[in-house]
Automatic annotation (TrEMBL):
Protein name: Nuclear transport factor 2 family protein
Coiled-coil residues: none
Pfam families reported for this sequence: SnoaL_3
Family matches, as Gene3D superfamilies: 3.10.450.50
Length: 167
């Protein structure tokens, strides 16, 4: 009886070892790059629906360059709609460099990118994407204008002057 029990136990272990293991394919920066590139292209082409379809939800965040520009997408949509409708081009941000990082489970991606823009000059974007089922969606985006340290004192003074005007 012990022999049969031992034989069954060993058989179970061997069968378990032969079962195919679920392998997780590591996420590819190419997938995230494709989403972000298409998102920027949608703005350049004035494609409102395609642009906003790249966000995870209406609760996602877009932060612009002005200190007052922190929007949930449900607020950002009506603010930005005229930019998409007026000229057929909302804005043109051309990535010149991007670095993508992933969470251990591969379902969250962080990125930072350098942008060439006709109206803002050299700019930066950073953000977070989440993988919902089989697609990446933007949960948070932050657009900034890097200020060289050599002029930061002047810029800070200009900001303070501007803020004092509104008081």
């Amino acid at each position: 009886m012990r022999f049969i029990f031992l034989l069954l136990s060993i058989s179970g272990l061997l069968l378990g070892a032969c079962e195919p293991k679920e392998t997780q394919i590591p996420p590819s920066p190419d997938e995230v790059n494709a989403v972000l590139d298409d998102w920027h292209l949608a703005a350049a082409e004035g494609d409102f629906e395609r642009y906003f379809d790249h966000f995870e939800s209406d609760s996602s965040i877009f932060m612009g360059t002005d200190a007052t520009e922190r929007w949930t997408i449900d607020v950002f949509k009506p603010w930005s709609k005229p930019y998409f409708e007026d000229d057929g081009v909302a804005w043109t941000f051309t990535p010149t460099f991007r670095k993508v990082y992933f969470s251990d489970n591969g379902k969250i991606a962080w990125f930072d990118e350098e942008l060439d823009t006709p109206n803002l000059g050299p700019s930066r974007g950073s953000g977070v994407l989440v993988k919902n089922e089989n697609e990446w969606k933007i949960a948070h985006y932050n657009l900034t204008i890097p200020i060289p340290n050599s002029i930061v004192d002047d810029v800070v003074q200009q900001i303070e002057t501007e803020l004092n005007k509104s008081e």
